């Protein structure tokens, strides 16, 4: 399957090269490492698929615009086995031995954090994608940027404001002990208190939890208006199935990671209708004209919807690189200058960086509404109104 | 509310008991530490997903497909890897330790083959997810089916070991391998059939799990660990005690969490595991209970 895709893109690239004999250019080589095996492997396809889709689009349009010259694109990739130390070695190799022209980002916060010093040392710019932590801000600005709007302190504050606007008076918080969940919770709890929302249950659980009966019974006993589950994929599935079984009645239910996966709705169907989750992109946002075509192209190629977080961030990171290279060419310092100062037009609307952070895209929330993901907060980007959860 | 907790404990316990049963049979008769056991559960889960997605075959029927496929895989592994090694006593001695590494290899190969073939994108499907309410319990159909099938298989296996001639041979090989051979038990055949049964049970467990969990190539490892905890609690190779220990673990986990906090789940389970290894290495039920 993958071989076939590779062959297809090779043929496409060859056709492009043959067609433009006058400008038979050397390909632009973009290197990246990906967690194809190991702990994070489950997340890899959503990102690799987006990269491949971008490459197809660029090559079909005659190649990457390098300051006026169109050159075909090829990827140089390695598996980092979900290990940040491997990823560091791989990026050193990509830069020093493979001498790639550009870099694309790997998956996950720890690997992004581990790479930042390497990029600074080699003065090699890279647009990050799937990283989310307040620790990102501690990275010295310069050679890495983060388009994400899922930064835990903002998520905590915005979520509390969102809940307040829906007249939520009390909330139960169930949180995985893994870092992103705990980081968000540390900002959410004070924000809820600030907005006068009482916390009826505040419990942690381990990542390998297999049964939530006790936790959900506690939630049911306090009958809160909102149930906020700061979950990772496996427990997102578990929570939804058991919430249905035990009849959780809150009108506002949020599940953190996993609810944007295609398999989530496949496995849980109607019961997760009106589930809220974290994310800042919807194909239905008409103000972002590139959003829908990206969604359609992804669906046509992979026969599943893109992940509203990882696939979108991965694609955005390459769109940003593409636009920077069109202006600056392949000179690293010029690319750095371009990424730091330009405003980019992406599938997620305009993006501009201040320091390492995207200063335009607002921290937003999505809701599953009749099978599609709609932005429901904040008002500036929303595609549909929030709907209370009425059953499972 | 305790009825609901009781139900949760029974469901968890029956799954632990079933997954551990397959591992225990293979360890008991062949003295092989099958660290790839959880990956057979994963294969079963994928069988169920693809049978439903491609052919519309419901999981209740996929159980047989998964059992046949995983059982067949057991046969291939036995004939291809272990038959000769087990027939030579000197090699068989070392095999118990080596099997851990051999099966680790099998585990890595299985995970990555599945990831290559189907990608590591999580999968899931809906089956029997309507909620039934009775006797103060709310239960989704798929968890009821999980409990029913797992319990039936565990009891069926105990009856088979108690009343069937082949079951007697199997017990004989577990208890006194050499003596069994002397009195005319075809040890090779018993071993081959047992590894097929053990693998098939893991496949069936996979089908059951796939109805309630997301399916990924890397979902198997927690089941391997849980199964090892259970058979160490029960006593390695002690089939009946293993089943009892599976249910015990389900109860300890569910009620332990209810009495303390969910964050203590892992500490409870592994604390018990280490405690038993230190204080009663022969297992909680040790010699007190024999297979009957």
From TrEMBL, chain A:
Residues 1-24 form the signal peptide. The keyword Signal applies. Residues 27-360 form the Leucine-binding protein domain. SUPFAM superfamilies: Periplasmic binding protein-like I. InterPro entries: BCAA_transport, Leu-bd, Peripla_BP_I. It holds the Pfam family Peripla_BP_6. The keyword Transport applies. GO terms for biological process: amino acid transport. Belongs to the leucine-binding protein family. This is ABC transporter substrate-binding protein. It comes from Mesorhizobium zhangyense.
From TrEMBL, chain B:
One of its GO terms (cellular component) is plasma membrane. The keyword Nucleus does not apply. It is found in: Cell membrane. One of its GO terms (biological process) is amino acid transport. Keywords: Amino-acid transport, Cell membrane, Membrane, Transmembrane, Transmembrane helix, Transport. GO terms for molecular function: transmembrane transporter activity. The chain crosses the membrane at residues 32-53, 60-81, 101-123, 144-170, 190-211, 223-249, 255-279. This is Branched-chain amino acid ABC transporter permease. It is a multi-pass membrane protein. Belongs to the binding-protein-dependent transport system permease family. LivHM subfamily.
């Amino acid at each position: 399957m993958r071989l076939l895709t590779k062959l297809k893109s090779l043929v496409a690239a060859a056709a492009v090269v043959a067609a433009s004999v006058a400008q038979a250019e050397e390909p632009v080589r973009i290197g990246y490492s990906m967690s194809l095996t190991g702990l994070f492997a489950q997340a890899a396809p959503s990102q690799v698929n987006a990269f491949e889709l971008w490459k197809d689009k660029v090559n079909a349009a005659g190649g990457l615009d390098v300051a006026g010259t169109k050159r075909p694109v090829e990827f140089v990739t390695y598996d980092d086995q979900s290990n940040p130390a491997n990823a560091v070695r791989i990026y050193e190799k990509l830069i020093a031995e493979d001498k790639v022209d550009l870099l694309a980002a790997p998956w996950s916060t720890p690997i992004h954090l581990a790479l930042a010093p390497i990029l600074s040392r080699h003065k090699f710019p890279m647009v990050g994608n799937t990283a989310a932590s307040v620790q990102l801000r501690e990275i010295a600005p310069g050679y890495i940027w983060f388009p994400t709007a899922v930064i835990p302190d903002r998520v905590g504050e915005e979520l509390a404001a969102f809940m307040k606007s829906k007249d939520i008076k009390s909330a139960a918080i169930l949180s995985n002990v893994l870092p992103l969940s705990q980081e968000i919770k540390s900002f959410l709890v004070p924000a809820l208190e600030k907005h006068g929302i009482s916390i009826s249950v505040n419990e942690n659980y381990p990542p390998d939890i297999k049964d939530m009966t006790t936790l959900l019974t506690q939630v049911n006993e306090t009958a809160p208006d909102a149930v906020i589950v700061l979950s990772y994929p496996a427990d997102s599935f578990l929570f939804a199935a058991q919430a249905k079984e035990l009849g959780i009645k809150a009108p506002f239910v949020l599940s953190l990671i996993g609810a944007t996966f295609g398999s989530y709705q496949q496995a849980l169907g109607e019961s997760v209708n009106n589930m809220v989750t974290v994310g800042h992109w919807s194909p239905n946002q008409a103000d972002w004209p590139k959003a829908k075509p990206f969604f359609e192209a992804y669906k046509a190629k992979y026969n599943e919807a893109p992940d509203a977080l990882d696939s979108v961030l991965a694609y955005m990171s390459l769109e940003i690189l593409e636009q920077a290279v069109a202006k600056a060419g392949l000179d690293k310092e010029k690319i750095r200058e371009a990424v730091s100062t330009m405003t980019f037009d992406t599938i997620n609307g305009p993006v501009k960086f201040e320091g390492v952070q995207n200063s335009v895209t607002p921290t937003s929330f999505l809701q599953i509404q009749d099978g599609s993901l709609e932005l429901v907060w904040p008002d500036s980007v929303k595609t549909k109104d929030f709907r209370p959860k009425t059953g499972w | 509310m305790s009825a609901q907790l009781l139900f949760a404990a029974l469901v968890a316990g029956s799954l632990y008991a079933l997954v551990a049963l397959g591992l225990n049979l293979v360890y008991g008769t062949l003295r092989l530490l099958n660290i790839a056991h959880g990956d057979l559960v994963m294969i079963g889960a994928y069988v169920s997903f693809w049978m439903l997605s491609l052919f519309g075959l419901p999981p209740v029927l996929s159980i047989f497909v998964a059992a046949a496929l995983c059982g067949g895989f057991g046969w291939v592994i036995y004939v291809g890897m272990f038959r000769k090694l087990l027939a030579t006593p000197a090699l068989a001695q070392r095999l118990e330790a080596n099997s851990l590494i051999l099966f680790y290899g099998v585990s890595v190969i299985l995970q990555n083959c599945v990831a290559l073939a189907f990608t590591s994108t999580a999968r899931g499907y809906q089956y029997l997810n309507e909620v039934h309410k009775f006797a103060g319990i709310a239960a989704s159909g798929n968890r009821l089916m999980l409990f029913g099938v797992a319990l039936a298989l565990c009891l069926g296996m105990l009856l088979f070991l108690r009343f069937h001639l082949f079951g007697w041979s199997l017990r004989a090989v577990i208890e006194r391998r050499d003596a069994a051979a002397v009195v005319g038990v075809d040890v090779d055949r018993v071993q081959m059939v047992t590894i097929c049964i053990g693998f098939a049970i893991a496949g069936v467990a996979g089908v059951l799990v796939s109805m309630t969990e997301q399916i990924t190539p890397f979902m198997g490892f927690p089941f391997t660990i849980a199964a090892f905890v259970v058979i160490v609690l029960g006593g390695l190779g002690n089939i009946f005690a293993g089943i009892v220990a599976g249910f015990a673990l389900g109860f300890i986990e569910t009620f332990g969490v209810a009495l303390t906090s969910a964050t203590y789940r892992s500490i409870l389970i592994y604390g018990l595991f280490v405690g038993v290894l230190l204080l009663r290495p022969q297992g909680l039920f040790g010699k007190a209970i024999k297979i009957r």
